[in-house]
Amino acid sequence: MGTSSGGASVGKSQTKEVRGVALVKSCHAGSGEKAPALILTLVFKGEGGKGLREWPARLWEDPRGVGPSLSAGSLVLAEGTVVRHNQESQLRLTRITPLKASPEEIQAYIPQSPLSSGLGMARLDAFMESLSEPHLKMFGLELLADPEVRSLLEKAPAAKRNHHAVVGGLLEHTLEIMEMGDRIAPVLHLNRDLLLLGLLLHDLGKCWEISAQPGFAYTDDGRLLGHMFLGCDAIRKTASRVPNFPGILLKLLQHFILSHHGELAYGSPVLPATPEAMAVHMLDNLSGQIYAMRAAKGGEGDEWGYERNRGAQIWHKGSDPEALVALWRDRDVTNGQGAG
Ligand SMILES: [Fe+2]
Ligand SMILES: [Fe+2]
User: Where is the HD domain (predicted)?
Assistant: First the structure.
């Protein structure tokens, strides 16, 4: 049986009951005759109020007609059971009740990056100070001196879902790949200045594309223009404030933004045309993939998680050799195949 009002406890059992307060991350009506009435993503507090956990949820019938009153970023009391659907755990709701909540209460359900924004911004400043080509260095420092860019970059999520979809996630993701780029540049004989700037800029447009408010909704600019255009436009303005900034360098920097999805089919209008642009695409992809694997969860205590995007099973113990050896020793003993 489920939970206190502060969190939801759900586990392996396919009929586990859940009753808990949750934030509505997204909510829309199902379409078609056999579709659920409401398709939701809910965010619950973890056991003992620690951490946050997202759950896909479905309400198959909405006899009380609550659907229209639910909006992303509001709190609800969710009641239902956990079921397995397409290899992932899902909540089948029997009842969902809107709750009145203060902004502080709602804030407690908004996932945050573990990275301190102050430390993160200071690391970005240090990276830009370390650039050697004078125009590129001046450009990087000018960009980070922009108060609008700074305040947006401190809070922006890197995505609405999938990876680094938390407040401060864009900064965390950007620094993660800049740290990697700093290390691989000498190994692959890449231009460090260009690579670090390309990594910093690749998703900059997300500052204006996705709101950092509960629900991480796409902004009007985001829907109309997308993060690649918004990033290219922002850095054109920055470059115009750097005296005598060479036009060809601006194009090279815009190329990082336009090519970072790596393939035309994934929304990039051009393919990476320089080794540094290929490295930006690969490091961006690596950061997103690893994050999504770590975030793929099964039921509580499950060794295996399910990553919906790739349809892949993820073995969390596979990153822990000590636990693996202990686990295998126990299993071998249980199976009568003890070593030695
Ligand atoms: Fe992107
Ligand atoms: Fe990215």
Answer: 170-289
Q: Which domain holds residue 69?
A: 17-107
Q: 179-183, 194-198, 226-230, 329-333: which range is least confident on average?
A: 329-333
Q: CA-CA distance, 220 to 211, in Å (whole number)?
A: 10
Residue 254 lies in a domain: yes
- Protein residues within 5 Å, CB atom, of ion ligand 2: 203, 284
CA–CA distance from 102 to each of 53, 74, 112 (Å)?
A: 21, 10, 18
Ligand nearest to the CA of 164: 2
Ligand 2 midpoint to CA 105 (Å): 30
Q: For residue 37, give the DSSP letter.
A: S
Question: Does residue 339 sit within a domain?
Answer: no
Instruction: Report the chain's terminal Cα–Cα distance, integer Å.
Output: 44
**Plot region of 235 (φ>0 → left; ψ -120 to 50 → alpha; else → beta):** alpha
